[in-house]
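Hey,

Quick one before I head out. I ran the complex with manganese (II) ion overnight. Inputs first:
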Amino acid sequence: MRADFDELATIGATPEGGVSRPTFSASHIAARKWFLDRAKSAGLDARVDAAGNHSGVLQSRSPGSKRVLLLGSHLDSVPGGGRFDGALGVIAALHVLLAFKQAGTELPFALEAIDFTDEEGTLVGLLGSNALAGALTPEQLQSPRGGRDALVAGLQEAGLREELLFDARRDPSTLAGYLELHIEQGPRLEHDKVQIGVVTSIVGSRSFRMVLRGGAGHAGTTPMAGRRDAAVAAARVILGIRETVVRDFPGSVATVGDVRVEPGAFNVVPGLARLALEFRSADERELDAIESAMLARVRAEVDSEAVEVEVSPVARWQPSHLDPGMADAIERSAAALGLTTKRLASGAGHDAQALAAVTPSGMIFVPSVGGVSHDPSELTAWEDVVNGANVLLGTVRELARR
Ligand code: GLV
Ligand code: MN
Ligand code: MN
């Protein structure tokens, strides 16, 4: 497993020690091809669906078993990401299948190691898992996070057809469940010295694009008084958003993750600013409250600079609850291995949130050194990786016993 993990990490490797594999980039497509080739050469059936999800399948030897237990995660990364986010879950899934294959274990379901398309949201976010769950809508493809042009070009690069993406939907009655091993991406397990996290729920999130329109002007001749500087308004908006969430919504998070001003020169007062806003909470009603508070604050801040704002919603993910039965099975598996566990909610988004709507889903977390993620220095001790993979394997056995 380690050899495979390390080999995969060379695809899209960055000088900083991480990987950069944004959806449908050459490195992402190469990583997916590597995975499929590896699965095939190990004797698994290869499968690519209409949404580009890549799978290796171990058929069940039990006569009459028609369902499949999905084990997976994603091989795309954020730009300048780490080696573990997503890749760990796919590699561990592959090796769980290989372990059962080698042992010749008879299971009451087929096993499928699956790499979901565009989890990170370079283009849409949870594209492949939502398509499989039947939750993808044509509207989500019209104004996606990464922009419509990038989506159209990416689908073409990957050989996918937009109108067929929806065909990736699977009938829930064919699914036995979904399990995902992932790094925690936060500091709680490390802090509490716990080996395995058992995920109970995944936060919901909403994202918005904001365009601030002020007035461009000569940086030397436009008096400071009366300027309608879109960059200054953007700065106020960013600080206002932070203050609002910290003061009024403790436990929730809000981020302005992208800021661009135009025309963008030393000697021009910026006339336009484009911001990407995202906020997250485990509670749907709190998301409503944050949305109202944010929008009110944004308007107040831009007004004070005589700048106009246009806000457009981009994506909306509901908080999701993972299956308590799956959590029990994960805990039994960890206990049998003598590993310590803790139940926790995930502040990061995962394919499991899409799957949870249609099939019993569970997630296993392993500790992240320093809680760091979405960064090249992302690291999980190899011993913890092995623990996580063994818990995944043991959970499959627990489910097979039912
Ligand atoms: C994906 O990792 C996300 O939580 O945005
Ligand atoms: Mn991930
Ligand atoms: Mn991620």
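The two ends are 28 Å apart (CA to CA).

Talk tomorrow,
K.
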